[in-house]
Automatic annotation (TrEMBL):
Active site: S68
Molecular-function GO terms, alphabetical: protein-L-isoaspartate (D-aspartate) O-methyltransferase activity
Function comment: Catalyzes the methyl esterification of L-isoaspartyl residues in peptides and proteins that result from spontaneous decomposition of normal L-aspartyl and L-asparaginyl residues. It plays a role in the repair and/or degradation of damaged proteins.
GO biological process terms, semicolon-separated: methylation; protein repair
UniProt record similarity statement: Belongs to the methyltransferase superfamily. L-isoaspartyl/D-aspartyl protein methyltransferase family.
Pfam families: PCMT
Protein name per UniProt: Protein-L-isoaspartate O-methyltransferase
Subcellular localization(s) per the UniProt record: Cytoplasm
Length: 218
């Protein structure tokens, strides 16, 4: 497939302004801000909508799904405290933008998407951009037990509850970040696995995600 993406001064400038906006909104992790400053978000947009790519908004990517708002991506990524080499399961690849941010931080990413058309797009676009995560097509609400355990698990869609099966796939010391709530709004939840059956849960701010649809979800 021939891609014509270019990262021009106009987009680079808009990206710098986005980073400053996220800093003002409270994102403090400089590594996360640097990753946002590096990944060309407009590559995930049709050229007609390039002017929307560096606004702090979610945007439709087809199949009724969205590329997450940059603030949300930065917020979730900051909570994950990614260390170089961390094995991260991302549930809800979507556009693949969040995947690139995680890879910029040095994570080895296992990413799963249930919508075939989105999966097909990301397996083309991300390698073209130089990102080579492990891609999976299927229901990520059950995790991917064959590849477990993980240092971190990130859910990028709104869940009705924290699926036990995801907690089982964390290493001890591992962390799950998942928005949990109803179809309207969800609260960001972090769960740290402190022992084989011991967890520390923290409930944070309110967000609005598309639903996590699957066997252990809606
Ligand atoms: N971080 C992504 C981005 O910026 O593009 C977020 C994409 S969107 C907010 C959430 C994605 O989760 C959608 O693409 C949706 O199809 C996917 N999804 C929902 N339920 C899923 C499931 N059970 N397994 C895998 N993906 C799922």
């Amino acid at each position: 497939m021939a891609y014509k993406y270019k990262d021009n001064y106009r987009e680079q400038g808009a990206r710098k302004r986005l980073v400053e906006l996220l800093r003002k909104k409270g994102i403090e992790d400089e590594k996360v801000l640097a990753a946002i400053g590096k990944v060309p978000r407009h590559f995930f947009f049709d050229e007609t909508f390039y002017n929307q790519a560096y606004k702090d908004i979610a945007f439709p990517i087809g199949e009724g799904q969205t590329i997450s708002q940059p603030y949300t991506v930065a917020y979730q990524t900051q909570l994950l405290h990614i260390n170089k080499g961390d094995k991260v399961l991302e549930i809800g690849t979507g556009s693949g933008y969040q995947t690139c941010i995680l890879m910029e931080l040095g994570a080895q990413v296992y990413t799963i998407e249930r919508q075939e058309k989105l999966y097909e797009r990301t397996i083309q676009v991300l390698p073209y951009m130089g990102y080579k995560p492990h891609f999976f097509l299927g229901d990520g609400s059950k995790g991917i037990s064959e590849q477990a355990p993980y240092n971190k698990i990130l859910v990028t869609a709104g869940a009705p509850f924290v699926p036990d099966i995801l907690l089982q796939q964390l290493k001890i010391g591992g962390l799950l970040v998942i928005p949990v709530g109803n179809e309207e709004t969800q609260q960001m939840v972090t769960v740290l696995k402190v022992g084989e059956h011991d967890y520390e849960k923290v409930v944070l701010d309110t967000f609005r995600f598309v639903p996590l649809v699957g066997d252990k979800a809606w």
